[in-house]
Amino acid sequence: MEEKIFASDHLYLTAFLKCCGHAIVGSSRNGTRISFEFQETPDLLGDVARFMSDAPIPARPFSFELLKLKRTIHGG
Predict the structure, then answer these.
(1) DSSP code string of 11-36
(2) How many domains does the chain have?
(3) Residue 21: its pLDDT value, please?
(4) Which residue in 38, 54, 56, 58 has its CB near the most CB atoms, within 10 A?
(5) Where does residue 8 rank: exposed (0-12), middle (13-18), buried (19+ CB within 10 A)?
(6) Distance of CA 62 to the CA centre of its chain
(7) Strand, coil or helix: 4
(8) In whole angstroms, how far apart are CA 34 and each of 20, 26, 54, 60?
(9) What is the pTM assigned to this prediction?
């Protein structure tokens, strides 16, 4: 059985998912855009829904994950 992959180029959603404990399993580029890939699970989809519903997240871990993602994108 093939694992399903959830991909997003939404940087803030990706940082939120990382803060929720989901691991990035890959990435892909389409021109200048990068999509981060996660294993698609019911928990992950639930956290995506929570993000879309304005779920709170601690600011410091969120900003740290965002910074790491930006460094990944820009090769730092």
Answers:
(1) HHHHHHHHHTTPPEEEEEEETTEEEE
(2) 1
(3) 97
(4) 38
(5) middle
(6) 11
(7) coil
(8) 21, 10, 24, 24
(9) 0.92
Looking at residue 76, its pLDDT comes to 63
For 59, the domain range is 5-73
Residues 6+ apart with CB under 8 A from 70: 11
Token pair listed for 46: 């639930």
For tokens 């699970």, the residue is: 41
SS3 2: coil
pLDDT in tens, the chain (76 residues): 678 999 999 999 999 999 999 999 999 998 888 999 999 999 999 999 999 999 999 999 999 999 999 998 887 6
